Amino acid sequence: MQQKTRCAWAGDDPDYIRYHDLEWGIPLHDDKRLFEMLVLEGFQAGLSWITILKRRDHFRRAFAGFDWKKVAAFDEKKVNELLLDKGIIRNRLKITSAINNASKFMDIRKEFGTFDKYIWQFTGYSTIYPSKPPRVWKDLPTQTPESDAMSKDLKKRGFTFAGSVICYAYMQAIGMVNDHLEGCFCFCNCK
Fold it and tell me: How far is C-alpha 5 from the geometric centre of its chain's CA atoms?
């Protein structure tokens, strides 16, 4: 059986391979999953993605299955409880950011009907494909005019941990951009 060619970052860790093959770069339009990825990308800031991926189930449990209404209602007692949870990243700023962002997420849903409708506007409601597939990871941008615009608007709406680099990683994760490398079976120049 022939082995699939993947982006080198997927390595040989089964969790990374599964994430690469089944999630990363695939257009996502479900608000619950969009909220989950927003929270996880915020927690990933300054850390490797595998650190977050290995704790994903713990995050789901700790953050009420990523139910934004429940997360928005977390109080100081819950924050202190989460700071003791060894299954997640115990960073007060990131925890309080997730709670704040849940509230702002609800505001956007009230205004736009869905978060999906809001967030995908930054790429014209379609995936951005590079004209030429990147050959190596360092060829990929860490931010773009689209992620800059997303970041600026999210911050204006009160979101935290929403800088352009985090927004670009979010865009990659939810398929707003296709940054699979040249030769990867997941890359498609589908313009």
Answer: 24
Active site residue 146: no
24 is catalytic: no
pLDDT tens profile 152-183: 999 999 999 999 999 999 999 999 999 999 88
Cα angle 185-39-27, degrees, rounded to a multiple of 5: 30
Domains of the chain: 13-173 (1.10.340.30)
Cα angle at 36 between 35 and 37, to 5 degrees? 90
Rg (the chain; Cα; Å): 17
111 is catalytic: no
pLDDT, tens digit, for every residue of 38-62? Answer: 999 999 999 999 999 999 999 999 9
- From the list 28, 64, 24, 29, the residue with the least C-alpha distance to 44 is 24
Cα distance between residue 166 and residue 72, in whole Å:
21
User: Can you tell me the distance from the alpha carbon of 128 to that of 122, in angstroms, rounded to the nearest whole number?
Assistant: 10
Cβ atoms of 129 and 189 closer than 8 Å: yes
- In the structure encoding, which two tokens stand for residue 97, read together? 């950011």
Q: Which of 41, 120, 168, 170 is catalytic?
A: 41
